[in-house]
Design a protein that fits this description.
The chain is of the alpha/beta class. The protein is 26% helix and 19% strand. The strands form 3 sheets. Strands 8-7-6-4-9-1-10-11-2-12 form a 10-stranded mixed beta sheet, with helices on both faces.
Length: 434
């Protein structure tokens, strides 16, 4: 009998009740901004140290074919929050500080769904799916609490022409203007710890979309100069520290076996920066690593869509696994819904799949057998199994075998005409259907 059990028994509480834990599991979704596939130690970066995320990978499963829902910020978040491709959900393009509207109010967010299932909910970090009028704010979309930026951290002069100030919001009100961003990641981590601690035994859903490493990158003074990868490395290592604080609080509260933690990035790194970004201290090397993949953020090459993807749930997800099965942040909605014992909302098409059997090691095969590559409202590619067919504008289509050629260097459309013809037909059909 543990010390905690002895104290509980002495207080007259049944051990069975103490050990049952919450009736539903907790969920923590950690979402980096513009982090490249190769930016973590567990994904092969030689200089950036990420011990906490590496431990999360070792204690759970690391996917090598994990996909964001899109290769730019807003539609990627739409896909995660709705389980639907952003074009289907009605918001396929990025929003700016002067935008109005957002994710259609008819869409049901993951937070609304879980709140209806009895969850305490909080969003901490970058929102970016609508902020004007108030109906589009996080509190109106299913989150009990919110702290963060309503859009990207570069959407201020000198990087973006706008008169809107960058402000930190708490719930439905701005609480301060953001100038120095160096402590933003620390603050988000501390807020997450508070939320976990105050949730007690009530099941919770914590959504933490970090503001970085989206440019301009930044790190607190005490953490600057620690990484051999420069300021970008300092930024990633600060995020890793925040993840460590969150995982530590989960363990401190005795919730390890009750909590599914997911980590991914919203898209690949921002290479080929537009001239407007190379100001205000931003350097061209302040962006991440796409590893061996072609392309980057804002493209439909693998470097724009394929991202680090980790899942940890002590006692439920066997540790030390690496899977090349195809998964996506689109799958979060049905996966968390199934884990919570909730029924998916009726009357809508979901593009996500329930990954629980795969995560728990009950099967080695993912229910996801395909993936669509969108850039805004334009569908430019489709993957089925190892095959990817990509066609942009009036250019001829290209076919790649991603298992043999993950770098997309060898177009084999001429050698595999039947596969190319079939996927070209699938692409044309999906362009009409969604």
């Amino acid at each position: 009998m543990t010390r905690r059990e002895l104290i509980t028994a002495a207080a007259g509480f049944p051990l069975a009740a103490q050990n049952r834990g919450p009736r539903k599991p907790n969920f923590i979704v950690l979402f980096a901004d513009d982090m490249g596939y190769g930016d973590l130690g567990c994904y092969g970066h030689p200089n950036i140290r990420t011990p906490h995320l590496d431990r999360m990978a070792n204690e759970g499963v690391r996917f090598t074919s994990g996909y964001a829902a899109a290769s730019v910020c807003t539609p990627s978040r739409v896909g995660l929050l709705t389980g639907r491709y952003a074009k289907r959900a009605g918001l396929p393009n990025n929003l700016g500080p002067d935008s109005t509207g957002g994710l259609p109010l008819s869409e049901i967010t993951l937070a609304q769904h879980l709140k209806g299932a009895g969850y305490r909910t909080m969003a901490i970090g970058k929102w970016h799916v609508g902020h004007k009028p108030m109906e589009y704010l996080p509190r109106q979309r299913g989150f009990d609490e919110y702290l963060g930026l309503l859009y990207s951290n570069d959407m201020i002069p000198p990087w973006v022409k706008t008169e809107q100030p960058l402000e930190l919001w708490r719930n439905n009100e701005p609480v301060e203007r953001v100038g120095d961003q160096s402590r933003l990641t620390e603050r988000y981590g501390q807020e997450a710890v508070r939320f976990i601690r105050e949730s007690g035994r009530k099941p919770f859903f914590l959504y933490l979309p970090f503001a970085m490493p989206h440019l301009p990158v930044s790190a607190p003074p005490a953490r600057r100069g620690r990484s051999r990868a420069g300021l970008y490395g300092d930024t990633i290592e600060t995020m890793d520290w925040a993840v460590g604080e969150i995982l530590g609080e989960v363990k401190k509260q005795g919730l390890d076996r009750d909590t599914l933690v997911l980590f991914a990035s919203d898209n690949g790194p921002w290479h080929n920066l537009p001239p407007r970004l190379l100001a205000g201290g931003v350097e061209p090397w302040d962006t991440g690593s796409k590893s061996l993949f072609r392309g980057a953020k804002g493209t439909t090459w693998e470097g724009g869509h394929r991202v680090p993807f980790l899942a940890r749930w002590t006692g439920r997800i066997p540790g030390g696994r690496v899977s090349s099965e195809m998964v996506s942040t689109l799958d979060y909605f049905p996966t968390l819904s199934a884990a919570a014992g909730a029924v998916l909302p009726a009357g809508r098409v979901y593009d996500g799949h329930n990954l629980l059997p795969l995560l728990e090691g009950k099967t080695e095969k993912s229910p996801r057998v395909d993936y669509l590559y969108y850039l805004g409202a334009q569908l430019e590619g489709v993957r089925e199994g190892p095959w990817k067919y990509r066609q942009t504008g009036d250019a001829p289509g290209e076919l790649f075998h991603l298992d043999r050629d993950p770098s997309e260097e060898y177009n084999v459309a001429a050698r595999e005409p039947e596969v190319a013809r079939r996927l070209a037909g699938r692409l044309a059909k999906e362009r009409v259907n969604i």
